Amino acid sequence: MIEVENLSKTYSGFRAVQGISFHVKKGEIVGFLGPNGAGKSTTMKVLAGYLPPTDGKIRIAGFDVVTDSIEVRKRIGYMPENVPLYTDMRVNEFLRFRAELKKVTRRKIKDRVEAVKQLCSLKDVENKIIGTLSKGYRQRVGLADALVHDPDLLILDEPTIGLDPNQIRAVRDLIKDLGKHHTILLSTHILSEVELTCARVLVINRGKIEASDTPANLTKLVRGGGSIVLEVRAPGADVVSRIKALPNIEDVEIDLPGDGEWTHAKIFAEPGVDVREEIYGVVRQNNWPLRELSRVKATLEEAFVELTQD
Amino acid sequence: MAFWTLYKRELNSYFQSAVAYVVLFGSAVIQSMFFVILVRFISDANYKDQSVMQIFFTWPLFWLLLLGQVPLITMRVFSEEFKLGTIEMLLTAPVREWDVVLAKFFGSLSFFLILWLPIALDLVALQLFSNPEPPIYWSQVGMTALTITLAGGFYVSLGIFSSVLTKNQIIAAVLCFAFLLAFFGISLWRWVQHTDATTLAWISYVSLPEHLQNAVVGIFDTRPIVFYVSVTAFMLLVTKTILEGRRLQG
Hints:
The complex is a heterodimer.
Chain A: E1 2-11, E2 14-24, E3 29-33, H1 40-47, E4 55-60, E5 63-64, H2 69-74, E6 76-79, H3 91-101, H4 106-119, H5 135-147, E7 153-157, H6 165-178, E8 183-187, H7 191-197, E9 200-205, E10 208-213, H8 215-221, E11 226-233, H9 236-244, E12 249-256, E13 262-269, H10 276-286, E14 290-297, H11 300-308
Parallel strand pairs in A: 3-8, 3-9, 6-7, 7-8
Antiparallel strand pairs in A: 1-2, 1-4, 4-5, 9-10, 11-13, 11-14, 12-13
Helix pairs in contact in A: 3-4, 4-5, 8-11
Chain B: H1 2-14, H2 18-44, H3 52-57, H4 60-74, H5 76-84, H6 86-91, H7 97-115, H8 117-129, H9 138-164, H10 169-187, H11 189-192, H12 197-206, H13 208-215, H14 222-249
């Protein structure tokens, strides 16, 4: 659906995006992650045909974004950051205007407008002036606008920013639902959202792609995909040396100040190896009183921090 | 297709804004008031040299109205889109820059012409209620309407050009007013300084008051038509280029 080769974008000397390449297959929901100013919005604007790329080749549904811009735009539903809308129009009027503009055939306009109002729960504000709507409703009008011509590809720039937790959940469910029939590229800062909705994550930092994988695989990148916490009553140095002697152990850290004679250790094993049983063996051999032995799964947040911090 | 959709939206949006109603009301009052005064003056003084239309459209008042209306109706055209960020939404729909520029131009021009409806209605009323019925010369009416439309088109294109330059509506209005004044000032030059015949010929080529003097007596002259159509087309081309340029900059 999306093929990006070597995309660069320079604004008056500043290289916002530096030669990124990625592919999105039909039917995928892909999350676009990155710190502020990483180049997410710029990339999305280029994909939507609003900004021309400085360099590189982008094809969407087989059409070139630069030379076949109109064809590409017919197939994209783009929701820009902050959702700019005509504040003087009524919801119904606006959606009809957008449907017409996006070349929905005359006889289908009514059905499509009804359908997206239903989908985005806009029925009860359909006759209100957009300027009087709350942020949550405006966001939904923006989403309805992106969907009104039933595009193959949805590009959503921070669709849940500024919403309350209930609304976030509603939008998330909506996106998951839409993912059954559409290809979706969405950017967000809310990592739990990505874990729940996206099949794949692209992490971008300083205009470059740092990682592209499933959320589960990304968390595995974080030092062995998680750590093991061990709390025993024994001298710290003993714990470190005995456990380090085990195979498949990468590192052992004493991370919290001891509580009396107790030692709190964090153990990092090699990726994909479960060493809890061996650790328990060591504990039993030494007769250390045991208070805790558990595995801590790495979160996407840790993966994000690790990938985007220098 | 996209043009019609955008044109309808553009013209409709005028009727959503308070400024438009103020301009509409102001124009209607000023036009009709002076029309009544002129008619009274002509009948009281038994004035036979010129028609009401001739006096009205060659009066400085008419020029002032023209210069005041256009900046007010065109200032928001692009500025507001830039300010609200809706330009991004507009240009990511499958529309061309030309569709946008032309829709905005014809939308504003239509509203401009609506502003001049009161004077047309005044003329109709004069025709209906006068006794004996004054003769009506369609060539005069037609030429005047054509000249106002064409000159209005050029003024509106200058206004749209000013609006594409900035996201601040006030700056757009002031710029437009300055452009209009500078252009209109050319036709007043002969009263400022002694002018030779060659310069006068040049001035008459671009002078709206002189075009109107010919139009109100029904003279068909192709020169102003060619002039207004070409400068309008040029301004629209410049506007479209700047719109693209602003997008390219991000």
